[in-house]
């Protein structure tokens, strides 16, 4: 029994470490000193009183992912509220059950909170994962004037959806807004490939050159995180 608890504790810490992109050395501490390393990680990187419920929920999700779904479904059945619908949708979303998540998100906003930003952003992401680009566009247009839409992942997915539906001028406008130096590295690589695919070779080369230069000044953690994108940037430049 103790063995499984230790494994669950390690799994939670590694999951949290990966999700939050904390320092790489924590992997070694958690793996090679499982109990002490995991406890130190939780104390220094995870725990505070407000997060206690979230920690317990994430541990439950790792050990028994379907239990969270079952518990939230029962809660929704008992009390059919907007928040309970969203909570269940979030649980499906976090497990990659995008179709079920969409059903519950859309049910939640059908009669109230129709432009709730959390729900709309999740719908944009879920429909993008399913490659339903028309619905990505439809939902993005509900919140595209909001302040925090600009440069967000939702705007990037909106740009991709516009490209996929051959609305190239609109896609260009959205891509340009996420083209911010020293940020959105992978998204800007997609933008550079968009430019090259649409015969804007000089602009594409210029952006790739910027990305290559930025990669030379990245901290080690970011170089690891964007290793694949950095290699692709170099490859594209070498092929030009």
Please give a structural write-up.
The chain is mainly α and 240 residues long. It contains 15 helices and no strands. It has helices spanning 2-20, 25-32, 34-46, 52-63, 65-78, 82-94, 98-108, 117-129, 133-143, 153-164, 168-178, 185-197, 201-216, 220-225, 227-239. Helix 5 (65-78) packs antiparallel against helix 6. The longest helix has 19 residues, at 2-20. The model has no long low-confidence stretch (mean pLDDT 85).
Largest sheet geometry: none
Number of DSSP helical runs:
15
Question: What fraction of the residues are assigned to beta strands by DSSP?
Answer: under 5%
Give the helix level as a range of percent. over 70%
Structural class per helix/strand content? mainly alpha
- Rg is 21 Å
> What is the H/E string?
HHHHHHHHHHHHHHH
Count of strand segments: 0
User: Looking at the structure, what is the overall shape?
Assistant: flat
What are the low-pLDDT stretches, counting only 5+ consecutive residues below 50? none
Q: Give the averaged pLDDT, no decimals.
A: 85
How far apart are the termini? 58 Å
């Amino acid at each position: 029994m103790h063995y499984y608890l230790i494994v669950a504790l390690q799994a939670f810490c590694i999951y949290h470490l990966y999700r939050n992109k904390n320092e790489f050395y924590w992997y070694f501490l958690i793996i090679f000193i499982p109990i002490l390393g995991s406890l130190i990680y939780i104390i220094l990187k995870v725990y505070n009183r407000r997060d206690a419920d979230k920690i317990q929920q994430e541990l439950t999700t790792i050990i028994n992912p379907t239990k969270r779904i079952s518990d939230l479904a029962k809660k929704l059945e008992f009390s059919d509220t907007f928040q309970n619908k969203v909570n269940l949708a979030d649980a499906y979303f976090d497990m990659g059950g995008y179709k079920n998540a969409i059903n519950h998100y859309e049910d939640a906003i059908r009669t109230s909170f129709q432009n709730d930003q959390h729900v709309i952003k999740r719908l944009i992401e879920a429909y993008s994962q399913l490659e339903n680009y028309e619905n990505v566009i439809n939902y993005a247009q509900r919140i595209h004037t909001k302040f925090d839409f600009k440069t967000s992942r939702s705007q990037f997915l909106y740009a991709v959806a516009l490209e996929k539906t051959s609305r190239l001028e609109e896609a260009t406008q959205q891509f340009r807004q996420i083209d911010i130096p020293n940020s959105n590295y992978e998204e800007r690589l997609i933008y550079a490939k968009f430019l090259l695919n649409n015969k804007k070779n000089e602009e594409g080369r210029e952006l790739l050159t910027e990305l290559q230069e930025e990669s030379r000044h990245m901290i080690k953690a970011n170089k690891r995180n964007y290793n694949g994108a950095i290699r692709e940037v170099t490859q594209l430049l070498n092929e030009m």
